[in-house]
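ok trying again, last paste got cut off:
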Amino acid sequence: MRFLILTLIPFISFAQNFFVDDSKISFFSWAPLENISAVSDKLEGVVNFETGDFFFRIPINTFIFPSSLMQKHFNEKYMESDVYEFSTFKGKFSENIFLSDDTTQFILSNGILSIHGQEKNVSIKTELVTQDSLVNFSSNFNVFLKDYKIKVPKIVRMNIADTIAVNVSGSLIKK
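nice, full thing came through this time. structure:
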């Protein structure tokens, strides 16, 4: 919690802060022997549309799988969620964002995606839909296991894809 507070301090003094109110992150791994999927609704974050700065984080152990064994292996063997508790995305929008009711805009979010203790500069295309003072967002992107040093044992190589499809959506509200 202290990390989140310290990270958010630069945002506190700005006027246009929006916080994640409702969210869903899901991922899918297609492999020849098994498909793997999981979902979490525990995304936390803040966006400042005046400066274009943003910060998001998700507790790794909040992902729910169809099988408790998959969930256990994900947390203990692959993601080591006791050591690497969070995945984060911190950065800045590539352009100025102007919010007005009943608009849809596509923006590029540039920043550092941190997973499994590894950081990578990424650009993620995001759809923003503004309606009734609510800002909805959605993004789809791929995560490559090798980029984040997530090791897959040879014995289960045919069960887990090298590329994981990630979908993120939610609402931002002004506080």
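cool. The helical segments are 2-12, 68-78. The chain has one domain: 2-8+19-174.
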